[in-house]
Specification:
Layout: E1 2-6, H1 10-21, E2 25-29, H2 32-41, E3 43-47, E4 52-55, E5 59-61, E6 70-75, H3 82-89, E7 98-102, H4 108-115, E8 120-126, E9 130-134, E10 137-140, E11 146-149, H5 152-163, E12 168-171, H6 175-185, H7 187-194, H8 198-202, H9 205-225, H10 240-244, H11 248-255, H12 268-275, H13 285-294, H14 300-313, H15 322-330
Parallel strand pairs: 1-2, 1-6, 2-5, 3-10, 6-7, 7-8, 11-12
Antiparallel strand pairs: 3-4, 8-11, 9-10
Length: 331
């Protein structure tokens, strides 16, 4: 069985690369610039635990035709490109092919199911951070799991993910898992606006209080929508804002038990701003804003984070000090 990674950027190259290094047959489909890097350098995969793997000659295509070979498709395009990817893949997919949406946000699966009626479309989440070090080198910079909706095809391929060092956790219902992941991903905007590595940003109480404010809003919105975030860390989701607001020494001790973060780690939103790309803020903080409006309320902290990231996309400020950003969000 062939695995296709469709939209293979940082996350896709890392997941697919680890699967290929462990012996799975993987074809990558993505951008020309990534294809050139991998043609010259191959794939190097490292992680925060010290793993180092090589795939000297990955099969990387720049047109969608190779997706027709795949029984399992791991979709890792940015959320804004979901519809375009589905339109490209749709006529080519094998009947009954399984497509796992390893994307940010909570609504990509529904969009894909509408556009890919002949495929089994499953929601998934990526719980770890990947840093593109350049020259075909992708680094897994935090702890975290791959999670997806349970399916017989994934059960049959579970050993491939296990050998790759990426155990795939399967769930009967992914809605709560997606909500919990979104709570954590609300930090992408804070990190991108700080300009700092994740570990340094989270070491500063003021930045953590910005995230805590965004999470408290999100928890209220989820409650109004009848969504119960799953417990992905040792702490229940409703307790995390209080931990984030704690003094630095208290947070550092407790957080060390929850999440390992490499000093290299940065958010994907920071990488998008560095590369001059449009970010996924509408599918992260913007998701909370939209959900609040759908239930007759507002999420002003997340609204302001969306606006500040949009300004940064246009060349605006990306070096906020924690206290300044907190004051901005409190206004």
């Amino acid at each position: 069985m062939v695995i296709c990674v469709y939209g293979a950027g940082s996350v896709g190259c890392y997941i697919g690369g680890r699967l290929a290094a462990a012996g799975a047959e993987v074809v990558f489909i993505g951008r020309e610039r990534t294809a050139r890097q991998l043609t010259w350098h191959g794939l190097t995969l490292t992680d925060w635990r010290g793993a180092e793997l090589r795939v000297p000659e990955p099969r990387y295509e720049t047109t969608p035709g190779a997706v027709a070979e795949a029984d399992l498709v791991l979709l890792t395009v940015k959320s804004a490109a979901t519809a375009d990817a589905a339109v490209e893949m749709g006529p080519l997919l094998k009947p009954g092919a399984v497509v796992v949406s390893f994307q940010n946000g909570m609504r990509n699966t529904e969009k894909l199911r509408d556009l890919l009626p002949g495929a089994a479309v499953l929601p998934g989440t990526v719980g770890f951070n990947v840093v593109n070090r350049g020259a075909g080198w992708f680094h897994g910079a935090t702890s975290g799991d791959l999670e997806a909706q349970a399916h017989e095809t994934l059960a049959a391929r579970a050993a491939d993910f296990e050998r790759a060092g990426l155990p795939l956790v399967q769930h009967g219902d992914m809605r709560g898992v997606q909500a919990a992941k979104l709570l954590l991903n609300l930090n992408n905007a804070v990190n991108a606006l700080s300009g700092l590595p994740l570990k340094e940003e989270l070491s500063q109480r003021a930045f953590r209080r910005c995230l805590a404010a965004a999470q408290r809003e999100a928890l209220a919105v989820f409650a109004a929508a009848g969504i119960a975030p799953a417990k992905l860390t040792p702490l229940p989701p409703r307790w995390i804002p209080a931990l984030l607001s704690a003094p630095d020494a208290v947070f550092a001790k407790a957080a060390a038990r929850m999440l390992a973060i490499d000093p290299l780690a940065r958010s994907s939103m920071w990488e998008d701003l560095e590369a001059g790309r449009t970010t996924e803020v509408d599918h992260l903080n913007g998701e909370i804003v939209a959900l609040a409006r759908a239930h007759g309320s507002r999420a002003p902290v997340n609204e302001r984070l969306v606006a500040l990231v949009r300004e940064a996309e246009g060349g605006g400020r990306r070096d906020w000090a924690g206290e300044d950003l907190l004051a901005e969000l409190r206004r």
